[in-house]
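In line with agreed milestones, the collection of sequences with tokenised folds has grown. One record among many is set out beneath this paragraph:
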Amino acid sequence: MMRGSSDERNRRSIRLTGYDYSQAGAYFVTVCVNSRRSLFGDIEDGKMALSDVGWMVYKWWKELEQKYSRVLLDEYCIMPNHMHGIIQIVGADLCVRPNMIDDGQIHKGQTRRSAPTVSLADAIQWFKTMSTNEYIRNIKSNSWPSFNKYFWQRNYYEHVIRDDNDLSRIREYIVNNPVKWEEDEYYVQ
């Protein structure tokens, strides 16, 4: 598709209008490999077997918590050509680990004070940039398959998690995703 074509100009945003994605909350995200190439591994007996590329993606996903003190990771699943995850952005005054959706109690774990602001877009962009850079290094040093222009799809899917029922439903979806791979909208043989 040519740049500036009507399809690209008319692409609608899936973001909630007026919503502040840096405010404390839980978010479900799906990030896809460009052209949905299956690079992250294979589903074997209903379980994901990560390739070297999949392990690299896993490493950078887990690094999000180290990069951003207000980011906490919950359930996630790396699939052959995409990944799902729940990211929590916690309040700037007090960051509580390790549970999702603040229930008013401090759980065992760490607390941190006065963390800088981070948005969901900041976290996803950093993750995509770092994993793309490492992928490029591995194209050169380990002969990983090259890609055309972009490693990741341009955008990502997000959903603001609104309550505990929503959280439970999404966690279940993520955990069961490998078992239901052939029914998945991202499934490619």
Observations:
- The chain has one domain: 21-179.
